[in-house]
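Notes from the 1:1 (GR / supervisor)

We went over the backlog. Supervisor wanted to see one worked example end to end before approving the batch request, so GR pasted a single chain during the call. The sequence is below; no edits were made to it. Supervisor asked that the structure be written out right there so they could see what the output format looks like.
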Amino acid sequence: MPTHRTQPLRYSAFTSPSGGGNPAGVLLDASALDDTAMLRVAAELGYSESAFVTSHDGRSFGIRYFTPEAEIDFCGHATVATAVALAEREGAGDFVFRTRAGDIPVSVAVSSGELVATLTSVVPRTTELEDRDRLLELLRWSSDDLDPDLPDGLAFAGVWHPILWAATRERLADLDYDFAGLRALMRERGWATVSLLHRESETLVHARNPFAGSGVVEDPATGAAAAAVGGFLREHGLLPPDARFTIRQGDDMERPSVLEVDAGGDAGIRVTGAAHEIGSPASAVPPAG
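Structure output shown during the call:
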C-alpha cells in the first residue's frame, strides 16, 4: 500500500443527518506494526476502537481492532469507518474484511450524496443471560424497570452482548451505573458492550451501550451490538414483516447516531450506516469518565 496510508485517520461512523456518530481510528496500512505498536496507536487516538488494516489481496483486507486497552475480535463502527475510507480511495463497491471473528463482507454505495456502508455479520447466536440479577444490580435497575413483553438474553454477532429491554424511554435515558463493578463483570464474562434497549415500535429501537470492560462509559453507536440485536429479535420471532428496523443510539450523549438493521434470512445480519472523516482530534468525542 502507498506509504501515506501509514498515518492514522479519524472517522465518525453511523452518523445521522445532524452529525453525531461514533469516532474510530483507521490505519489503512498497519502491515509494519506489531501488536504493541497497534495498541499504542489506539491508546494515543483514544477512541473506543481503532481499526488496523494488516494485509490486502485485491479488495480483501486483513483487519484487526484495538481498544485503548486490548485487542477485540470485531467492531462494527470501525468496520464501517474503514470501508468508507477505502471506498474514498479505491471506489465504492464490495470489500471483504478478514477479522478474528470471521470474514465480514462490506458493500459501500453512494446514497443521497454520501458514502454508506453495509456490513454483513457472522451468523448470530443467542443464549440465556445467567447473570441478569447481578447485571441489574450493577446498573442500579430493578426487574420492574424491564419490559415484561420482551425477553432478555445474550446475543452474538462477532462478540457477545447482554440484551436488556427498558420498559420506558425515560428509564433508558437515566444511565448511572457502577462502573468498576460492571467493568469487572464484563471482563469476567467476555462481554463487548451491554445492550440496553427500548423498543418504541417494531421498526424503531433506542439503544445505549455501556462499554465498561474496555474502559469506556458508553458507546454512541455500536454496529456489532446492532447486528447481535437483529439476530436476537430474529431468534425470538420479534422482527417486523420485512425484518428491517432502525436503531437510534447516542441521543442521550448528544451524539445522535443511526444504524439500519436488516435481519432477513437465516445467515448474517446486515447493518448499514454512513461515515465521515473527522477534521481533527479536537472534533472528536472527549473521553468518557
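Supervisor's comment: Helices lie at 35-45, 76-90, 132-139, 169-173, 179-189, 223-235.
Batch request approved.
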